[in-house]
Automatic annotation (TrEMBL):
UniProtKB keywords: ATP-binding, Cell membrane, Membrane, Nucleotide-binding, Translocase, Transport
GO molecular function: ATP binding; ATP hydrolysis activity
Cellular compartment(s): Cell membrane
Residues annotated as domain ABC transporter: 3-233
Chief location bin: membrane
Entry protein name: ABC-2 type transport system ATP-binding protein
SMART domains per the UniProt record, alphabetical: AAA
Organism: Lutispora thermophila DSM 19022
A Pfam entry, by short name: ABC_tran
GO CC term, one of those recorded: plasma membrane
UniProt entry tagged with the keyword Transcription regulation: no
């Protein structure tokens, strides 16, 4: 294991931000910490890497006790903080160079590494530009470059795509995929379930300071009891058809709005063919059909009765 956390607790006054969590991360794993705003993800990460002191718990990184060997362990960790930590009055190159020097890189090795990470984050052409003129997305990418310059063994990315343009977001997602394919070990926190679903090999879902579920995305989807949602637009609604669908085997719910029927089927039943056959038999024409499998959003909803997104928009 690259990292092992046992019974971690962190309070801010009366707020129990991290409530007795345990988790471990294997080498080469992209470990996703998914949860709504305020779930405790940043506090968990900050406590693990020693930015904040834990109230209780054991943290071992690279097989060593973090409390006793913090400065040695930190040399091999790359942190991409949620709040961008770069210098606006330096150029992109100078920023990365600065962080490289903090890790004792010098001379031609430093120069090569700076160029390498600027290239990796798509900023090599802008290396001489002052960061104050950068877009939010470019600043986030530079933040990543600074965290990677010393080739860390463990990379921690805290909400690296918050508040940026789609192009930079895609760039970051593709960079993480590239790192994954090269065997990097990454902790990736996010409240965007699509990102976590796409990138992470193992996922822990946090809510109110606790890890409420964990596993691969396939394992997490086992929590969901409803499998398929099929949304069908017809040329006209025939209520006999609706009644027929409602009484079909494995149909959990069937609702109608205008000419659109939404059918929810039980998990693992692959009901799509039966639904289509029922519509054809009734003489209706299908105008369009969308069939969705459950995602991590559905898992969160099943576990908490709330959506990740609602939490985000009301935060
Ligand atoms: N410095 C602080 N002082 C007091 N309370 C804090 C502090 N930082 C966070 N909290 C509280 O601790 C809880 C967990 O917050 P945290 O930022 O760790 O969550 P998060 O999942 O990372 O959310 P976000 O994505 O919004 O950062 C929240 O209730 C938050 O209000």
């Amino acid at each position: 294991m690259i990292l092992e956390v046992k019974n971690l607790i962190k309070r801010y006054g009366d707020t129990l931000a991290v409530d007795n969590i345990s988790f471990s991360i294997k080498e080469g794993e992209i470990f996703g910490l998914l949860g709504p705003n305020g779930a405790g993800k940043t506090t968990a990460i900050d406590t693990v890497i020693g930015i904040r002191d834990a109230d209780k718990g054991e943290i071992n990184i690279f097989g060593k006790d973090m409390k006793k060997h913090a400065s040695e362990i930190k040399k091999y960790i790359g942190i991409v903080p949620q709040d961008i930590a770069i210098y606006p009055d330096l150029t992109a190159y100078e920023n990365v160079e600065f962080f490289g020097r903090l890790y004792d890189l010098k001379g031609s090795l430093l120069k090569a590494r700076v160029e390498e990470v600027l290239e990796f984050t798509g900023l090599l052409d802008q290396k001489k530009q002052f960061v104050r003129n950068f877009s939010g997305g470019m600043k986030r990418r530079l933040n990543i470059a600074c965290a990677l310059v010393h080739r860390p063994k463990l990379i921690i990315m805290d909400e690296p795509t918050v508040g940026i343009d789609p192009q930079s977001r895609n760039h970051i997602i593709e960079s993480v995929k590239k790192m994954r394919n090269e065997g990097s070990t990454i902790i990736y926190t996010s409240h965007y379930m699509e990102e976590v679903e796409q990138l992470c090999s193992y996922i822990a879902i946090m809510d109110h300071g606790k890890i409420i579920a964990r596993g691969s995305k396939e394992e997490l989807k086992d929590f969901v009891t409803v499998e398929e949602k099929t949304v069908i637009t017809l040329d006209g609604i025939n209520y006999t058809l609706v009644d027929r669908i409602k009484t079909m085997d494995n149909v959990v719910d069937c609702s109608v709005e205008g000419n659109v029927i939404t059918v929810i089927s039980k998990k693992g039943t692959n009901n799509l063919n039966n639904i289509i056959q029922c519509i054809i038999d009734s003489g209706n024409q299908i105008v369009s059909l969308i069939s969705e499998k459950p995602d991590l959003e559905t898992v969160f909803l099943t576990l908490t009765g709330r959506t990740l997104r609602d939490e985000v928009t009301t935060a």
